[in-house]
Amino acid sequence: MRSEVRGGWTVVAVSGELDADTVPVLSDLLEETPNRQVVVDLSGVPFMDTTGLSLMLDWHRRLDGAGGQFRMASLQTSVYKLFRLTELVEVMHIHESVEDATS
């Protein structure tokens, strides 16, 4: 996982599975992010379990509730399916690409 600032947005790129073993690492990285505008690039995530889903929803609520913005970009089909099955595609800010999310 790595992060960089792009035009006022902190972009956090994640690769590998996002599950109970890796969610704490992403959570710590997000906690250290001072920016209130965050995009999580999930293009490198082939699998996400409910702990990853919970983390994404928690950060969406936290930032949107505090006047910030939380967006996700470049979801692989299997990860997008998880958000669709849980009916969160209507709630979360999901974008085709990081460029779309930061514009």
Give an overview in words:
The chain is built from 4 helices and 5 strands. The protein has helices at 23-31, 50-65, 77-85, 98-102, and strands spanning 2-6, 9-15, 37-44, 69-73, 94-95. The protein has a 5-stranded mixed sheet with strand order 1-2-3-4-5. Strand 3 (37-44), helix 2 and strand 4 (69-73) form a beta-alpha-beta unit. The radius of gyration is 12 Å and the shape is globular. The mean pLDDT is 95.
How many E-type strands? 5
Q: Based on CA inertia axes, which overall geometry fits?
A: globular
Helix-residue proportion: 25-40%
- Rg for CA atoms: 12 Å
The major beta sheet can be summarized as:
5 strands, mixed
Span of the ends, CA to CA: 22 Å
Helix-strand topology string = EEHEHEHEH
Tell me the β content. Answer: 25-35%
Mean pLDDT level: 95
Number of helices: 4
Task: Give the class from helix and strand content and strand pairing.
Answer: alpha/beta
Give the strand line-up of the largest sheet: 1-2-3-4-5
Unreliable spans are none
